[in-house]
Amino acid sequence: MGSTGRVRSARARTGLIDLPFPARRHPRYELAGRHTLDWLHRFGMLAGEQATAEYDAMGLERLMAYFYPDASDAHLALATDLNAWFFVFDDQFDGPLGKSPEGVLRQIDTVLRTMGDAPPVPGEAANRLATSFRDLWQRVTADTPLLWQERFRSHWRDYLTAYHWEALNRTRNGTLSLPGFLRGRRDSIGVQPCLDLVERCGGYTLPKELHEGEPLAEMREITADVVIFVNDMVSVDKELAAGDVNNSVIILLRQEMCSVEQALRRVAVLANARVARFQELTAELTAGLDATALAKELRWQVDDYVDGMRALMSGNLAWSLETARYGEAGIAAVSEGRQRPWAQLFPEQAAEA
Questions:
Q1: What is the pLDDT confidence band of residue 137, given thresholds at 50, 70 and 90?
Q2: pLDDT at 138
Q3: Average pLDDT across the chain, whole number
Q4: What is the mean pLDDT of residues 212-220?
């Protein structure tokens, strides 16, 4: 199938999703993209014209522009750096390391140690992913309330440790149930740290009782599920080519012995049910806040946070149809054991290469 046919296929698949939130894109995303390319080169995560061109084709700065359409230029650049790290880190596990739970634990432990004020540990200086994340952590958390820092740290810890869960999935016999898969995938998809950045870009921190209470807690879970389902629908060809199992479409394909088309339609139904529930909860939240003597500023913050959830869902869908990550080039990059040019950045991987 040619690239045009695959784009049509992706649009046909995502056309099954009824998402009533129009996507908006920050107008100065190219500036953020150039900043992030410089940052990646400075930390040695991209090297050479081929790697740079392949990275650039993914258009990751546009994803952040959809997520944070009203952010300042400085906040958008910071979010784009963090998102670049996220994808470069993720691609380290497409090869043998992703099937070694013990190896994954060693690598994520090194990165986990960078989240704080502790000095670098022995060997960290040679680990480009750890040193770059330490830089990110210091910049992201600068001048932020302790409550927000702890929230962000907890979500990033959940995200990083989910790589061990994914490695176990690749080595276990049998297939996870869809509910069991979603429990782990909600961490590995990285939506919660992205929602933390909604607060960071807005310059506020929601009170714990609002953030962790209902209905916002369920709305955050729904946001993650919708992003998961859309991502799995557009990336299923790439993950089938790579032999991966961490995809809801693949789980249904194997569990129910159905066709890819049938599994895609089933996932779309699940996504649409989540979106409908999100709309119901939004109405409940609005009615509850209207009946509460909530300070005007706090009310704006809650509304902005809900808008951030909508932006993540609609922005992920819009970007998924633009990026080369899930097209022919993206599939070829991981087929037959191939890896991205920026893979094998951990010191142990580099030594084996």
A1: very high
A2: 95
A3: 91
A4: 97
pLDDT of 184 reads 96
- The whole-angstrom separation of Cα 69 and Cα 133 is 24
CATH topology of domain 3-17+24-346: Farnesyl Diphosphate Synthase (1.10.600)
Terminal-to-terminal C-alpha distance of the chain? 32
Measure the CA–CA gap between 96 and 134, rounded to whole angstroms: 26
- Extents of the domains making up the chain: 3-17+24-346
Are 92 and 348 in contact, with CB atoms under 8 Å apart? no
- What are the residues whose beta carbons fall under 8 Å from the beta carbon of 234, sequence distance 6 or more? 10, 13, 14, 320, 321, 326
Distance separating alpha carbons of residues 234 and 337, to the nearest angstrom: 20
User: pLDDT above 90 covers what percent of the chain?
Assistant: 76
- Is residue 206 within 8 Å of 241, Cβ to Cβ? no
Which of 266-270, 276-280, 293-297, 326-330 is predicted with the least confidence, judged by mean pLDDT?
326-330
Nearest residue to 325 via CA among 70, 30, 16, 94: 94
Find how far residue 263's CA is from the centre of its chain: 22
Report residue 124 as tokens.
Answer: 């960290």
- Indicate whether 123 pLDDT > 80: no
